[in-house]
Amino acid sequence: MQLIVMFITTFLGGWIFPWWWPAVPAYVLGFWRSRTGTTAFLMGFFGTAGSWAMLAGWLNARNHGLLAMRIADLMKLPAPWLLLVLTGATGGLIGALSGWSGHAMGKWFRGINPKPIP
Amino acid sequence: MEAQSVWRWIKPWAALLFLAMVISLGNRNIAGLPPLGKFLNPFLGFWQNAEPGVPHDAKLRLPGLIEPVAISFDRRGVPHIFAQNAHDLYFAQGYVTARDRLWQMEAEAMAAAGRLAEILGPDLLEHDRFQRRMGIPRAAEKALELFRQDGESYDAAEAYAQGVNAYIDGLSPGRWPLEYKLLDYAPSRWTPLNTALIIKHMQWTLSAGGNDLALSNTLAKFGPEFLQRFFPSRREGVPPVIPAGTPWHFPKPSQPVDTGTPAPSAVMPSLPEPLPKLAPDPRPGYDQERKPDPGNGSNNFVISAARTHTGYPLLANDPHLNLSLPSVWYETQLTDPDFSAYGVALPGTPSLLIGFNRKIAWGMTNGQDDVFDWYRLTFRDSTLSDYLQGGKWKPVRRQIEVLHVRGAPDVIDTVIYTQYGPVPLKSGERPWNNNEPALHALRWLALDPSDEILATLRVTRSQDFQEFSDALKTFHCPAQNFAFASTNGDIAMLHHGLLPRKWAGQGRIPLEGSQPGNDWSGWLAREEEPSVLNPPQGWLASANQNPTDSTYPYYLGADFLNSARAERLGQLLASSDSVDVDRAFGFMLDDYDLHAARTLPMLLRHLGRPTLSPRDSAALHALSHWDYRCRSNRIAPVLFDRWWRALYHSVWQDEFGGDGEHYQWPSKEETWRLMTVDPASDWFDDITTPEKETLHILVARAFVEACAASQAGPSLDQIKLRQSDEVTRRSVAPDSEIGWSDTFVKWSRYRPVEIRHLANLPALSRMNISTGGCAECVNALKSQHGPSWRMVVAMDRKPRGYGIYPGGQSGNPGSRHYDDFIDDWAAGRHYALSFMESPSGSGESGYHLLLRGK
Questions:
Q1: Does A49 touch chain B (CB under 8 A)?
Q2: What angle do CA B115, B119, B124 make, to 5 degrees?
Q3: Residue A114 resides in a domain
Q4: A44–chain B nearest CA distance, Å
């Protein structure tokens, strides 16, 4: 459920907000919803990596890989598909770090104001 | 317990800080890479530049348009614009050009303005300072003032700017061109000043290639006789642009006739010190020669109806420029109720530079006239406040230039102006391209206000020769050889531009600035310019050679290109009395090396029949059986080029010495002449050895050297080449030349053609293109320089145009139109240019755009 929310918010906000936008929903979800640091991390990673890689993959397919080939060359990547991996991983990293960071904050916050996780 | 609770407190804040650091890292350029987070983000980053196939038809509302404009894009991505008034026409031209070339236009305007450091940082500061010191941005401002006075050109530039800005306003950051994302900056608004800057940029390319300083060093070292012998401003026997014997329609002037050598008064009493030697600039992308390419030139020719297959005149033109991606040209058809014209424009300028309309066709080659001179100044003291002129001290004018630098504080520079022009280099400063003497003023025609835009606006609307000739009136800098043909059968060639009235040799080397009378004394009148209409020979051609024979009384310069290309083109045209479009393209693609054809037999004679190693006999065999064609799979052109270079070097290196690059060496043509007319000359002796060398000995030594150097071993360079591009591997085709062909490097490997991205990014460039041609061929193709647009127009009742340029209509590396013409261009093919009569019509169309006002 968290993953789906993460995926959808990342996708919708991506068109308007700067590239680090996924950090915002991931932090909030990590803060309120994640039971462990690991789940917060994975939710942030796959929610963002999924939406980023999917959109990049679709744009790439429509373009028959023309631009990816040139950019992979520019960034000294041995193969264009690695660019899709790098795109997913970059987005995923932000989501994951933010989810985990949000969870840590939530845990500390609830340590001061104990309330059961609903 | 205590430690654990501290950690629980620190952890969330440390994690947040770490997150912020990662985000800030993703926002920054690191190690030459674009900001990774921004760049890879598929919503706003580079993925958005991955264009899908053919766009759909669209209707757009744009503020500023008066009436609707219909635009049809054909299958090659060429826009055919149909507007109902001139304002809307140039508005739409600005809109579509920006859509395809926005980054290129802005980058070139910024470069001309000396503002690259604003976007690229401190590395570009010296470039920017140079542009300011040469006075280029101020000259653009003056030109814009003149546009305002003329009205018509300002209106066009303003409408064009509105169109560009309408496009920019409709762009979300996700749709910015790729290069903005790579270099991490935003497009700024387009102004008519940018158009003036683009013109200045082209004027720099075409008129700032002089060698005054190097020539004066040569004069200082060898004296005036050497100059007279090896650097004549004219050679008899070279076919001029205006055919020999063409009568001049003006009274003979009273002033001295051009004698072909500098007058004594042009020789300076004391000569400048040779320039200090400079280490190559280590910064990536700045290791290339910055001086405009001396081969910047072109071919054009016109053939009268009587000599063509179709019975209509033909016009052909191929401007030779630095080849780049995005391409220097943008193809467009412009139509309003007054006219319809098809051709190529410089992105950033309204109208067309080369093309045809329903009645006329025109093309240009650079005139090569000398409009770029230096004046030596005597300053009163080191404050450089006053300079000596006519026995009096005159104050300089100072212009403050503020240079913005990305990521660093502004830099303030002061440019000194004199009555001649700016003083680009103060003493002790490092010259930018080894061509500027310190404490000299620059007199350069491009710094005077002129309105070439007005000329192009009127030319595209001209209906016959008289209108065309009148339209050119405001085309000042630099002078061009304008070829002309019309449907009513006229052919013409006009050597036109603003031509300073000079004494013979004036300004070949720096002039004494303190003496009155060394200034340019006015301009040639229009009727004094060399021109010809409908010559008896039935054809006209220009290839940047001297425009006239020796009966022409005025001195125009001494930088005309050597004659091999012009001579070959003349031979082709004179020997063909039934030319058609394909044949005309064949002439432009001619890869016969006339320099080799007249030099190689002499070299082989000097070489005789020595005892040679099997390798060297194979080379000799290839050379003896060469047909002088420079084709990609040949080895002979490589062997000859190396042989000639080694020989040329051995003839002059001993005389010019270790710092030889600071001198102008005799051209290869003059060196060939010396070998032909005086084979026993003392110049062939190597003065650094006690023995007496002869041409015979030099030729033999150079031959062995060339064979060894041409051997195809897996040298480091070649391994790099192989790794760098798949194309190389594919281009190594089996060769049928001789059994030894694999022993030697082939022409395409020796001279691979590279079309580089303007920001010099190899990944966005096309490297190792295999194609024919050579520097001296009519198909004057060097590694990064050559035919940037090949066009032929058959002047049928409805003119039919054909053309191609090495690039593609789109500047977006994510578009299939980025480089889709290159393979056809390299193979020598061309396209039929579809001159549309209406926007909806033919099946030529890819898609339509309908623009309406808001």
A1: no
A2: 60
A3: no
A4: 13
